[in-house]
Design goal:
The structure holds two protein chains of two kinds. By secondary structure, chain A is an alpha+beta fold. Chain A is 28% helix and 22% strand. Chain A contains three helices and four strands, in the order H-E-H-E-H-E-E. Chain A is globular. Chain B is of the alpha+beta class. In chain B, 18% of the residues lie in helices and 28% in strands. In chain B, the strands form seven sheets. In chain B, strands 6, 7, 8, 9, 10, 12, 23, 26 and 27 form a nine-stranded mixed sheet that branches. A six-stranded antiparallel sheet of chain B has the order 13-21-15-19-18-17, with no helix packed on it. In chain B, strands 1, 2, 3, 4 and 5 form a five-stranded antiparallel sheet that branches. In chain B, helix 6 packs parallel to helix 9 and helix 7 runs parallel beside helix 8. Chain B is elongated. The chains are: A alpha+beta, B alpha+beta.
Chain lengths: 94, 576
């Protein structure tokens, strides 16, 4: 496992995961280059949606899968998805 | 006739009509919704009917009575004057109010930025353009969207998903109604951008709509952006995507994953508009100048009994090296922790006031800057100890620079805030508003008073005709100029989702409600962008920004000036 490919929130999520084989972590995968055919196969087996020419992918993976992927030299970094919020309110501060 | 059921002005009009016929209505025509009919003996009046939400009023309809809605507590109708008495006698009718000639709030906002003039002179309506909304969903039954919702990808429903993600359910045609916008935010946003209502009309009322109902995870939002652009490409149409959402768990420089995906997906005929954020009044950002080796502190306040998780997201230049520590309200401290480049960079500290986790990885591959992440949790999963906490940073090297820190918590509105001199009203635009190619929109207040569904007049104490004070300030952490433009965002009346339940004070009637935020300003620009794409389907983000900037102005500033709050200023659509 290459710990330093993880951002801080993902590192925490991995350490706190109680089900390492359950696909419960929503992540962004950053490849160094556009993946080649073998790399695409690997991603597709992980259920990653692919399309030509892209280097950043989203995926729901298990902690174990993320750790294994981090060992791949063509993976630059893996970041945990964050929850955003809607920016409209009725009364301010509600 | 049940006189008590007739609203102010209506009883006078009825009495005058009974006494003098059509002539008696002359003094009332300017104020009330009196419309002439072919039968001069019985002109008609536009009215609001108050009844039970599910009341069946079919039996009341006929010659002289046309009721426009079949549900809702307040419905509009056109009623012949000589039928009003009979209508008031009906048990299902609680009250009859006259329609009045107002300036509808949505019409106030567009006029103030010359949108009607631009629409009129250009003839543009958004026809043959896709407006994409990634949000809480859309009400597919709202009449203002009738026949124009192309698809809904509801990411929250169980299903096999779409090409961009094998989750959720894609809906079209009769199945659109399987998706519900229970929050209402997405419906409101869609109405501003592309509603076709007669009274509260959107900017691009002929645009095709593609909606993504999301769970607001930024990875799913990214999938939604890709989905909308792919659907538009399949339809052979240009598209503009509206993202009235945001967060602060990113580096605030556009190098986060969602911003990078947006930048990669945009191009000719593919534009994204993002909200700047609503933290203009919230001290969520602190700045610390890093001098020669010294310890600096930044205080943040955690209120009592509310929060279970608080995070600090800190970023500084890669050439510097800081050591980070936390001090609790009662003075307990973690050791100082510097960058850890081998093995785990995570350390957990169980202090008497809470559990503090500090993470100090090496340089980020995307921007080469250093991030540290502090998580504070209450003991035994309880609330975090209230009081003033302190972030302490010690410069471990001689390199100077600046540390920027954002505080996040587990509430819908910012609750933990920085206090003291390090709190900084700047750099509060996070992802995806910080995406380089996105058009990032600040909010302008055009209206602060209205009459709600119960006939109560309400007003807010915001300065009018100026930047909304809640609008987040730029620039970005790398000093990139954001926001890009300012547009009306308060108070904006737009479509109400029938499946949502909101504050009744802000509900106008059964179809419309008021909201405020940079969320409302953004679809203004999304709609305008749709009009520009109709005119030039190959318009790219850079050209759109150049055109918009050249038609925006910060009040009192020179042309082309940038302001951290206004961006390049308030849009003036006339010159577009």
């Amino acid at each position: 496992m290459d710990y330093h490919k993880f951002d801080a929130p993902l590192a925490s999520a991995l350490e706190e995961s109680t089900a390492p084989d359950r696909r419960e972590l929503l992540v962004f995968l950053h490849a160094r280059e556009v993946p080649n055919a073998n790399q695409c196969d690997m991603l597709q087996r992980l259920g990653v949606a692919l399309s030509p020419g892209r280097k950043i992918f989203t995926a729901r993976l298990s902690a174990a899968e993320i750790r294994r992927l981090s060992n791949e030299p063509w993976i630059m970094m893996i970041r945990l998805s964050q929850r955003l919020r809607a920016l409209g309110d009725e009364p301010p501060g509600s | 006739m049940k006189f008590k059921k007739l609203g102010a002005g209506l009883l006078d009009a009825v009495n005058d009509f009974e006494a003098e016929g059509d002539a008696g209505l002359t003094p009332h025509r300017r104020a009330l919704g009196v419309v002439g009919g072919t039968d001069a003996k019985s002109p008609r009046m536009v009215v609001f009917l108050h009844c039970e939400e599910k009341a069946k009023l079919d039996a009341l309809e006929g010659p002289g009575v046309v009721i426009n809605q079949s549900y809702g507590k307040v419905r509009t109708a056109i009623v012949a004057m000589d039928q009003l008495g009979e209508l008031s006698d009906h048990r299902a009718i609680k009250r009859i109010e006259p329609a009045r000639f107002l300036r509808p709030l949505m019409d106030v906002a567009p006029g103030k930025v010359k949108v009607p003039a631009f629409q009129s002179s250009s003839g543009l309506t958004g026809k043959d353009v896709v407006v994409g909304i990634v949000d809480s969903g859309i009400d597919p039954k709202h009449p203002d969207f009738a026949g124009r919702i192309e698809r809904i990808w509801d990411q929250t429903l169980a299903g096999s998903g779409v090409i961009e993600g094998a989750y959720g359910l894609e809906l079209s045609g009769a199945l659109l109604t399987s998706s519900r916008d229970t929050h209402g935010h997405g419906t409101h946003v869609a109405g501003i951008a592309a509603g076709a209502g007669a009274v509260f009309r959107g900017i691009a009322p002929s645009a095709r709509l593609v909606a993504v109902k999301t769970d607001f995870q930024d990875a799913h939002i990214a999938d939604g952006v890709r989905y909308i652009f792919r659907v538009a490409r399949d339809l052979g149409l240009p598209a503009v995507v509206n993202l009235s959402l945001g967060g602060h768990a990113d580096p605030h420089d556009g190098t986060d994953s969602l911003s990078q995906i947006i930048d990669g997906e945009c191009g000719p005929g593919r534009i994204v508009c993002c909200a700047a954020g609503n933290e203009g009044n919230d001290n969520i950002h602190a700045q610390i100048a890093l001098g020669s080796p010294a310890t600096r502190t930044s205080r943040f306040q955690i209120p009592a009994g509310v929060l279970r998780s608080v995070w600090l997201n800190g970023w500084y230049p890669g050439a510097a090296r800081l050591e980070v520590s936390i001090r609790t309200p009662r003075g307990f401290t973690t050791p100082f922790q510097g960058v850890l480049t081998s093995g785990s960079f995570r350390r957990v500290h169980n202090l008497a006031d809470g559990v503090v986790t500090i993470e100090t990885p090496g340089p980020d591959p995307a921007n080469h800057d250093i991030n540290f992440w502090v998580a504070i949790r209450g003991l035994n999963r309880g609330a975090i100890r209230a009081g003033v906490w302190e972030l302490r940073v010690r410069n471990a090297a001689t390199a100077s620079g600046r540390l920027d820190v954002w505080v996040l918590d587990d509430q819908d509105q910012p609750t933990a805030i920085f206090t003291g001199p390090t709190a900084s009203d700047s750099m509060k635009i996070g992802s995806p508003g910080c995406a380089s190619s996105a058009l990032t929109v600040a909010s302008y207040t055009t209206k602060t008073s209205w009459t709600n569904v119960d006939g109560v007049s309400l007003s807010l104490g915001f300065p009018i005709d100026t930047i909304s004070d809640f609008s987040s300030e730029g620039p970005l952490r790398n000093n990139a100029k954001k926001p890009d433009v300012t547009a009306p965002g308060a108070v904006i009346v737009s479509c109400l989702s029938r499946d949502s339940s909101g504050d009744r004070d802000f509900q106008i009637d059964s179809l419309y409600r008021g909201m405020m935020g940079t969320s409302m300003a953004t679809p203004f620009m999304t709609g305008l962008t749709a009009l520009l794409l109709q005119r030039n389907p190959s318009l790219d983000p850079a050209a759109a920004k150049t055109l918009i900037r050249s038609n925006s102005r910060v009040p009192g500033a020179a042309a082309g000036a940038f302001d951290p709050k206004w961006g390049f200023g308030l849009i003036n659509a006339l010159g577009l």
